[in-house]
What we know:
Helix content: 25-40%
Shape: globular
Low-confidence stretches: none
Structural class: alpha/beta
Order of helices and strands: EHEEHEHEEEEEHEEHEEHEEHEEEHHH
Largest sheet: 5 strands, parallel
Mean pLDDT: 94
Strand order of the largest sheet: 5-2-1-9-18
Radius of gyration: 21 Å
Number of helices: 10
Oligomer: single chain
Amino acid sequence: xxxxxLDGKSFDVIVAGAGSAGSAAACSAARAGARTLLLERHGYGxxxxxxxxxxxxxxxxxxxxxxxxxxxxxxxxxLTEISAxxxxxxxxxxxxxxxxxxxxxxxxxxxxLARADVDVLYHAHVCDALLDDSRVIGVEAALRDGRxxxxxxxxxxGTGDAEIAFYAGAAFDLAPDLQAxxxxxxxxxxxxxxxxxxxxxxxxxxxxxxxxxxxIKIFGGPWIIRLADGEISVNATRVYGNPVDAAQVSxxxxxxxxxxxxxxxxxxxxxxxxxxxxxxxxxxxxxxxESRIIRGGYVLTEDDIKTTVRFPDxxxxxAWPVDIHPTNGYxxxxxxxxxxxxxxxxxxxCLVPQAVDGLLVAGxxxxxxxxxxGSTRVPxxxxxxxxxxxxAAALSARAGGNVxxxxxxxxxxxxxxxxxxxxxxxxxxxxxx
Length: 433
């Protein structure tokens, strides 16, 4: 094995993955006083919002009432930075989601990580967990200049696929009906003057006509984000497969790109407004909505969401509908926003894997049922659980690394100090400001 010059370095907290959850965790841990290392396999942060080009921070606001903010703290600072850089594209897009430009988002993350004094390594492929019995004491990563083993009393898994938890032997579930995968893409040189609602009507009409004529068997939506006049992002491809199976995800990536070209050609033929359009870019990776889900100290259920159960160890608030992209051949817009939930609470125990210490999991793989995951998986909620995991990691590292022994009252107070919302707005001191 060729070792990197960085091999053997130690930190207070290590975060794997620089998506919504990981970037929030890294900045929040560092601001809570922990020397923090962030490892990311791409050359930039942002996760599915940049690499998979989904463009929207769903569940920053309540889907039931768009005037109610449910995620603040790091998320608010990130959105302020994006807006200051000119990357806020929310003006003409769905009101329940906050839309951003992915290239600006990359720079905003870099700035916040630097401001928080996080040690960042891009092009770092985390390939194993370092263990002392059932305790995670660090990670191994493949870097551009060799392998490196980094040690820390607490590790945060922000990979989106629970990769560190998997390497550590943590229990997890993989649903037999994993949500559909999507290759998002952007079109330019489209007819000017249309709103995002116009574009959804135009593209859906074209795709339904193509489906009726037998030109295409399967597609979703389309759902459209309008990034600028003359440019749209299209969410329409629908691919099936297990995203943590190497062979299946490789085949799915190829299928997603093939579908992108097929759908673009249908839209050019059947929608005059798109006749002269061209593909600006396709996503660097598929949008993975669901893969491994850890088994934690508590499993959040759909009933918890619908009945708004209150948790004494609540550390984040969710607000997205149970949005599950089907794998049963469903064509078009699946039912999902008809009955949006009121804001609900997520307990800290959902971030703590069973039988493995020194590890916290944030973002998509937190401990839920398959149905509840359809709500908690979105980027806005991932920012919230990421901030909670980062602060918890810093506090636990200071106390010796036993994350399951952490005083949740201390954690909630520390999160409030970082202006995070820890309970449903209007209840027991949800936030400090």
